Prior knowledge:
- The structure holds three protein chains of three kinds.
- Chain A is mainly α.
- Chain A has helices at residues 9-17, 20-29, 43-62, 72-81, 86-113, 122-144, 149-160, 169-177, 184-215, 234-259, 289-297, 301-313, 318-321, 333-354, 360-385, and strands spanning 32-34, 231-233.
- Chain C folds into two domains: 2-43; 51-183, 3-layer Sandwich (Rieske Iron-sulfur Protein).
- In chain C, the strands form three sheets. Chain C has a three-stranded antiparallel β-sheet, with no helix packed on it.
- The longest helix of chain C is centred in the first third of the chain and has 31 residues, at 13-43.
- Chains A and B meet through helix 4, helix 5, helix 10, helix 14 and helix 15 of A and helix 1 and helix 8 of B.
Amino acid sequence: MSGNHFDNKVIQWLDDRLPIFSMLQHSAVEYPTPRNLNYWWNFGSLAGLMLVIMILTGVFLAMAYTPNEALAFNSVERIMRDVNYGWLLRYMHMNGASFFFVCVYIHIFRGLYYGSYKAPREVLWWLGLIIYLTMMGTAFMGYCLPWGQLSFWGTTVITNLFSAIPVVGDYITTWLWGGFSVANPTLNRFFALHFLLPFVIFALVFLHVVALHTTKSNNPLGIDVKGPQDTIPFHPYYTIKDLFGIGVLLMVYLGVVFFLPNFFVEPTNYIPANSMVTPPHIVPEWYFLPFYAILRSVPDKLGGVIAMFGAIVIFFFLPWIDRSKVRSAKFRPIYKQLFWMFFLVCVVLGYIGSQPPEGTMVTLGRVFSVAYFAFFPLLWLTSKFEKPKPLPQSIAAPVLKGASVGHAAQPMEKA
Amino acid sequence: MRKYLIPAFAAAVIAAATPAVAAEKAEVAHQNWSFQGVFGHYDKAQLRRGFQVFREICSNCHSMKLVAYRNLAALGFTEDQIKAIAAEKQVTDGPNDQGDMFQRPARPADHIVPPFPNDQAARVANNGALPPDLSLMTKAREGGPDYVYAILNGFVDPPAGFKVNDGMYYNEAFPGHQIAMPPPISDDAVTYADGTKATKEQIAKDASAFLNWAAEPELDTRHSLGLKVLGFLLVLTAMFYALKRKIWANVH
Amino acid sequence: MANMSTHTQGMPPTDATRRDFLLYATTAVGVAGTAIGLWPFINSMNPSADTLAMSTTEVDLSHIAEGQSITVTWRGKPVFIRYRTAAEIEEARKVNLSDLRDPEADDKRVKKPQWLIVVGVCTHLGCIPLGQKPGDPRGEFGGWFCPCHGSMYDTSGRIRKGPAPLNLPVPAYTFLTDTSVRIG
Lengths: 415, 252, 184
């Protein structure tokens, strides 16, 4: 990794002893990146930006927040009203969670569409899933902190999931709560963990990037890089492309922060927590809704919990469920349809999760939960019998025989 | 074929579910507010009228614990006016050097003094119902200021056959239509200091605007800063895009 | 950013110049935006509106006897209020200003000679000097003595000996009546 030569003597001196500049040069400047990445490839770095924003706003919010059941709600309101720019930090943090998940969901579905989970990127995929799970835990505990009605009852409902575990379930919930219901000890420990986990995510992201730079980036064609003609250096090509993406994301994100700050929020959470009154309609944050719908669809307590966690865990096996050697859905006509159906099932499940579990919603929830899980065996079947379209020779010459190669190498906007 | 089945099915699901949900909620008509939209900002004269309504009517039963008297400066009140408003109420302070708690007039730094010492006292005085704190009312209810306005104007005669329980009032905007709050306002329930004609609708409108300010005092700053930030980002992003085009021009 | 030039070699110079200008302009705007964007974070650590609103304290002086001191809290810090005796006032006044490390005349430090009001925080490293209670050591100059590093203050709260560089600061205050004062 070291061995780079820098004109600046100080940089050279430091780099000979700690090769941070060589590492940067290696992984953020020279890193050979496929020349044909489209804009869907921006969302990894955008998710990284959101993580940094969340940590930054979170650390400053923590300086004014009080994790105590008697004070938490008012301390958040003090941040909103009295702390200088507290409302900005709080709204950035609150909406930042949603935009972090938006970026990560697009990033995951991009990986699904272009087969980025396949060999040799299985560990990269796993690390991504672990990041996603850690994010869910962090977001769930963060939602508890304002100590509004939904904070309290959301925490109660989700921690009660663990009571479904046979024999030790009740001990586990009691241990999680630090008492016999969600109360001050729960809030206090959730704050500690909510503060810690983002740094764990940060370390996981570092490993995710190391794994990425070991196996190198996938690309919209899903074929391997054949030589230097297929790649361009990360800097300046993808740095500027990422910066442009960041500009667009910030406009949308800060647009919401400044003009629709409570768009993602249930009004009920502006009512202080009351352990004696459950609000009539409890919904989790939108990014949990599909899994919440699956949970409610199973009429058995333990079964529902297993189905919900299974819905995520099954993704760890994806590299082996999908037997196809072809990565990109571009060359897999049946998988492409399957992918879009799965995407729609997730969206519909999300909608069902947001509705009260009554009448047709229950039946629909069950139908779509089955559809969710059916994706995996169908994918396995598809991958065995599907006849992929012919693959291009290389990234630099993606168009098949007969077409003019000179015009074919347009690197962008070919999704 | 299957590709189109699913979206069609999804659309049917959503269409089927929507009226069922809408039926449960009472209709809340949208009003025009000076603070709505990207360029929206509070009308200070309206907020002062709304505060007058709060002070003379609402605050007899409702608290507003998250707002301090000093915050009224945002409505255009002078420091002396705020001191005078605060001094009308007594707060418990202490202990003093003799070890006793004592009453003193409220100061601008104090939060708006609630009408009852605690929730139980509030229930006893209000037929068992607890008047909710109004600090976050427009944020804590679906519909925000529209909802508050609809409630204040929603006291009508119950439809034939509707049984209203003892001590309850019929309100067309309230979920379930039975509310423990008696109709709080009527024409000329206040005499506005600025001479505005105090119709029932005017009072409801001003009070709702004031409650929105109480819940979102940062709105004016938020909107004006937001415009600047978005303007800046628009320029920066355009520059990024131009630079990207230039840099990528030679990748062919 | 420097090695961006390696990719411009094949381009006509005017185009490269135009791109360089765009690069510098974008960098400047981006850096300026980031710097301004950090301000809300930094400013959030400054005293908040509720902290600033609490920054006055009213004190009733009627029950303090001559020669006695009381300590009140103002902005989270102790404020020493001493009802000085005639001897103490006399002592504070007769000091030769050129002997002082931080020269300040006594009458510039009080509004009414008998009432000395100073912030009771040693100007060395922030300890609270002794001298408020009857049995406390008051140092060689009859004022206050800081137990941390031995600074000594006189009956006007001025530094006379020890490591502290400055006199005990006088807070802004006004007498509301003869026997009540508002600090801040």
